[in-house]
Amino acid sequence: MAQRQPAGRPQPSAAARKAVYLCHRCAGCDPSLSATERTGAGKRQRLARTGCRAAGTAASGGEVDGQAASGDRTFFTTGQGASMNAQLTEIMRLITNLIRTGIVSDVDREKWLCRVQVGDLETNWISWLTLRAGGARTWWCPSPGEQVVLLSMGGNLETAFALPAIYSNRFPPPSASVDASVTDYPDGGRFEYEPASGRWYVKGIKSMVIEAADNITLKTAELVVETDNMRINGKVAIAGGVTQQGGALSSNGIILDKHQHAGVKSGGDTSGGPL
Question: What stretches pass through the bilayer (predicted)?
Fold first, then answer.
C-alpha cells in the first residue's frame, strides 16, 4: 500500500521519490519530506559540503539522472516500497567479507587450489597467494588446519584469495627468538639461522643433494666432516700437506705404512714391487 502524504505537503516528483543518497558525511535526502523541509538551510549546507549535484537536485524536488556524483558516494535508486535497510545490510555484508580469517579445510595440489572454512561456511576452490609467480616461482602449499587471511574482491567470497598464514594453538610459532629465521617441517626437518650466534643450523633431514654445472667453492678457516664413511667418485688434487692418523692408508689394495718390497738388494739397485 502506498504511503499517504500528510495534508498540506506537496507531492515530490517520481525521480525524487526514487532518489536515496548515502555517503560517509550526509545521511541523505528523505523523499517523504516536503519541498520546504528538503531545501532547508541545514540541508542545503550539508549537500553543499558533500558536493553532490544529484542529491541536491533530488532534495529540491527536481529530476535526477540516476548517476553517482563521485566515486566515494553511492547513489541508490529503489523501487517504491523497497527497503533501504536491505541495501545497507548488503553493503555491510560485502564490507565484512572484504577481509576475513579462516581455516584451510582441503587442498588440491595438482590445481594449486584450496578450500577455507569460515565459521559455518566453506569457500569454493580458491587460489592461495605465493611469494613469486613469474620468471622466478616459489611453491609452498598450505596445509589443512592452517589459519589464513581471506582477501575478497568486492566482498564476494567466490573471488577470494587465501593469504597464508596466522599462528594458531594447533600450529604455534617454532621459535621465540628476536632475530632468528626458523622453518620447521612436518617430518622433523628444521632450518634455523640465529644472528645472535651467527650459526645456520639444519637438522632432521634424510639426505641433501646439491647440483652445480661448473663448480662449488667452500671458503672457511676449518672444514670438519664427521661421517662413518666418505666416498669421492672422481679425481682428487691436493695442493698442500696431508696428515693421516687413526687407521690404515690404502692405495689400490696396498697399505702404505705396512707393505714390504721383494728383491731388495744393497747398494744402488732398485727394489722390487710392493707385496
Answer: none
